[in-house]
Amino acid sequence: MREIVWHEASVSRARREAQQEHRSILLWFTGLSGAGKSTIAHAVEETLHARGARTFVLDGDNVRHGLCGDLGFSMADREENIRRIGEVTKLFLQAGIITLTAFISPLRASREQVRELVGARDFLEIYCQCPLEVCEQRDVKGLYRRARSGEIRHFTGISSPYEPPQAPELVLDTGALSIDESAAAVLDLLARRGVLA
What we know:
The protein is of the alpha/beta class. It has helices at about 15-20, 35-50, 60-65, 75-95, 110-120, 130-140, 145-150, 180-190; strands at about 25-30, 55-60, 100, 125-130, 170-175. About 45% of the residues lie in helices and about 15% in strands.
């Protein structure tokens, strides 16, 4: 629409990054429910916060309480959920924040849409690879049990597909690695990418 014009801020992303001595980046954790996405994202954030980095975790459940509270779990709604998150993370990148997201994000096309939106340099896809049976054993929310009984429709890994990343920046074998080992691998990736000063 011609009436809407992007307003460029005088305090730029580059100035924010220089002030805080780290660049902004998007860490996109993907994987089945119970694969450890949120737990690892928060563990990484704890370490980064202790180092003085500006961070924020966008968690799937939390986002659905507000921003995406009007969406269900049909494939179309899931795609819209991820599109909205992509737009939010783009703003967070401009704010100079290291953003960590923890979303199942089952479709490759949706994740690639976010990569294109924010730019490949700023998108690090982290695949929390965990066998379905291990995720079901963890099942702290009882979701797999409810999905197996037919109580939850469109449940990823049971009645709805999950498309693993084909070329993620990092694969974490969360069925075998500890939380600390997984977090250390993510921090190593950030160091190799020159995110932290």
